[in-house]
Amino acid sequence: MKKDVNQKQQQLEAFRVSDKDQPLTTNQGLKISEDEHSLKAGERGPTLLEDFHFREKMTHFDHERIPERVVHARGSAAHGIFETYECASDITKAQFLNGKGTKTPVFVRFSTVAGSKGSADTVRDARGFATKFYTQEGNYDLVGNNIPVFFIQDAIKFPDFVHAVKPEPNNEIPQAQSAHDTFWDFIANNQESAHMVMWHMSDRSIPRSYRMMEGFGVNTYRFINAEGKAHFVKFHWKPVLGVKSLVWDEAQIIAGKDPDFHRRDLWESIERGYFPEFELGVQLIPVEDEFKFSFDILDATKIWPEEEVPVRILGKMTLNKNVDNFFAETEQAAFHVGHVVPGIDFSNDPLLQGRLFSYTDTQLIRLGGPNFHELPINKPICPFHNNQRDGYGRQTINVGQVSYHKNSLANNTPHPVSEADGGYKHYEEKVEGHKVRARSESFKDHFSQARLFWLSMTDIEKKHIIDAFSFELGKVKNKAIRKQVVDMYAHVSYSLASAIAERIGIVPPIEVEVPHIHQTSPAVSQVINAKESVKSNKVAIIVTENSSEKLNELIATFLSEDIVVELVSNKQGIVSGYEIHETFATTSSVLYDGVYVTGAFQDSSQQSKAEQFIKQAYQHCKTIGYTKNVSFLQPIANKNGVVNDPKSFVHALAKHRHWVRECK
Ligand code: HDE
Questions:
Q1: I need a surface site. Which of 33, 124, 163, 527 has the fewest CB within 10 A?
Q2: pLDDT per position as a tens digit, 197-234
Q3: 163 CA to middle of ligand 1, Å?
Q4: Cα gap 647→654, rounded to integer Å
Q5: How would you class 331 by CB atoms within 10 Å of its CB: exposed for 0-12, middle for 13-18, buried for 19 or more?
Q6: Is 106 strand, coil or helix?
């Protein structure tokens, strides 16, 4: 693994401790001579209160857990570096985006939203994509998702939304699922969610890997350059490997076969040196153009179609180091949309405004007080000084008698800094209005972009959306809710709504007028934008007693293409001269991007396991390779994505899925 020595890593190094080869001590440093027996009055007698070692060990254990995040509890993170491709000083004075080749250490946490900390990775859900940039001007957090819009428009509805999607409160069922009554009841009664639900029902919500999904800031922010010129901005992360997804049946099986699928994928890729890479892009709208669009640019249920507002790529992030300790780093990382640097500011997007309160507030309970910024993972790499003092777990020893401003005793320091010297100054937007609990008329079109998304999908993507709606609503017990949702989606597309109605036993909706959409947005289709690549794809090679001697060549071809290879057989140990990694019992075809069969088994029960493995890969539209002597593959031999030489296999694997099988 590459040793990363950026400034954040140097800082963390001071906190790293290896316990290996060290004597066992108490937390006070006292060496311990015995750690298996508590101190007792007699061998069979009661434990003594004076056993400080027992009490310290047990007390610490009793207090090991902290509350999990109220949302995004399940996550996984890595360290890395962000490097600019070009100088973006024309649009922002944020120094980490200024100059070409400017490097900034980052820490990224990916997550699911609804499930608990121990839930499965591959559930249908949005994915969190939170990045902490340790800049020289302070930490900047870009707290985004892998879907560019959100369910609600105003943060005040967030507790309601989360209550609806989380397990139902009477029986705490179901875990990490939106396929239940309260979620869909919320959707039907809060129709601003229409657009987000389209994305949620698409393959975006079952990514193949954290490394293969886009990231979006979702909310509208503001960029300000050194001259004070401002743009509204939306942030994008574009994965270098392209956007790839699982299929739903596969995702559900993986949830049982390997609930850590995404976590493992991220960890192993970094350990193997296949560092995940994402390009950072921005969409920009000059402030004077705020009202020039058919949608309100402050509405987080709307995208800015990339065809209308192009994405400008600013640089690339590479994740090159796994954490040393999950709790200390991943669990204690505290992200906040309000952690900004000069050159980045907020808009009046009412979802963002509420987030600005919530993130610090939640850390207070989760991390136990106001000093979470002192935890190594959260600590800025630039100096920080202020008059905040004390609180649980305070680590800094602020010296001197002064902890207030203004003062004479410390020469009025720490002192505020002018804007010219890097002091943060809020963008001076003129605001005026009546105090009202209301939403702008311009936020009230809920169906145009939901329809835009639908019309921008390819046929296979549309099929998957209908399948997903039918699955989710099919799990809803209350028929009135099913009906309400179907009627709601008649406002998006009659063909969509009636196809769902047919599948879930609901009378077809009445045809209503739908928004007039004149253009589509190809940028939202992951099929249209599919990137062909095999780097870091995982392939199972099935090895039998009859595997050909050419296996070496096959493995060498795959490795030269940066494909990860696992040898699978009916038993571990040596088969046909090769050390076997996994068996049909310890692994499953759903854990691979493709399968290559190199011979038939002599034993018919083993043969049927191999056939089952391949059949499942075939059903999930994966690439299948075989050597010529494998006769049982003949029925599918000439089908799309089924090939019999390594080169064609690599070529077919790059396509990721062969949807034509599913269409038939
Ligand atoms: Fe969050 N969100 N959120 N959120 N969010 C949290 O903060 C909140 C929203 C996102 O890996 C919480 O530290 C409100 C949108 C991510 O640690 C909490 C609203 C987007 C993460 C919170 C939203 C996100 C969180 C829970 C509605 C995409 C995980 C734990 C207005 C742009 C960060 C925590 C990590 C976490 C509040 C909506 C992304 C409670 C009030 C939209 C990636 O503060």
A1: 33
A2: 999 999 999 999 999 999 999 999 999 999 999 999 99
A3: 14
A4: 11
A5: buried
A6: strand
What's the structural domain count of the chain? 2
Pick from 66, 68, 72 the residue to mutate for probing ligand 1's pocket: most ligand atoms within 8 Å of its CB. Answer: 72
The CATH number for 576's domain is: 3.40.50.880
Using alpha carbons, select from 489, 439, 441 the residue that is nearest to residue 295: 441
3-state secondary structure of 112: strand
305-353 pLDDT, tens digit per residue, is 999 999 999 999 999 999 999 999 999 999 999 999 999 999 999 999 9
Taking alpha carbons only, the member of 454, 456, 449, 452 closest to residue 499 is 454
Ligand 1 closest atom vs CA 145: 28
For residue 71, the CA-to-ligand 1 centroid distance in Å is 7
Which of 332, 348, 374 corresponds to the end of one domain? 374
Q: Which domain holds residue 573?
A: 538-663
CA atoms lying within 13 Å on the CB side of residue 463: 12
Whether 570 is catalytic is no
- Strands annotated E in 124-248: 127-135, 138-145, 215-216, 221-224, 230-239
Strands (E), 187-268: 215-216, 221-224, 230-239
Q: What is this model's ipTM?
A: 0.98
Pocket of ligand 1 (CB under 6 A): 69-72, 75, 109, 111, 128, 130, 143-145, 150, 155, 158, 218-219, 333, 335, 351, 354-355, 358-359, 362
pLDDT bin (cut points 50, 70, 90) of residue 4 is: low
Q: Which residues contact 608 (CB under 8 A, 6 or more apart)?
A: none
Domain-located, residue 392:
no
> Within a domain: residue 274?
yes
Where among 352, 374, 396 does a domain terminate?
A: 374
**Residues 53-67, mean pLDDT to the nearest whole number:** 98
Q: What is the mean pLDDT of the chain?
A: 97
Of the residues 53, 72, 200, 236, only one is catalytic, namely 72
Q: Which among 143, 302, 303 is the best mutation to test ligand 1's pocket, defined by most ligand atoms within 8 Å of the CB?
A: 143
CA-CA distance, 590 to 213, in Å (whole number)?
Answer: 19
Query: Which token pair is 376?
Result: 């190594």
Decide if 43 is inside a domain: no
Query: According to DSSP H, which parts of 258-307 are helical?
Result: 261-272
Query: Rg of the Cα trace of the chain?
Result: 28
The predicted-structure confidence for 98-118, as pLDDT tens digits, reads as follows: 999 999 999 999 999 999 999
> Mind giving me the DSSP string for 429-490?
------------GGG---SHHHHHHHHTS-HHHHHHHHHHHHHHHHT---HHHHHHHHHHHT
Catalytic entry in 98, 145, 219, 537: 145
Higher pLDDT, 212 or 549: 212
Tell me the whole-structure pTM to 2 decimals: 0.97
* Residue nearest ligand 1's atom 30 by CA: 69
Q: Which residue's CA is the nearest one to ligand 1's atom 8? A: 355
CA 572 to each of CA 284, 437, 545, 551, 578: distance values in angstroms, whole numbers, following the listed order? 56, 66, 13, 17, 10
Is 145 noted as a catalytic residue in this protein?
yes
**Cβ pair 222, 346 in contact under 8 A:** yes
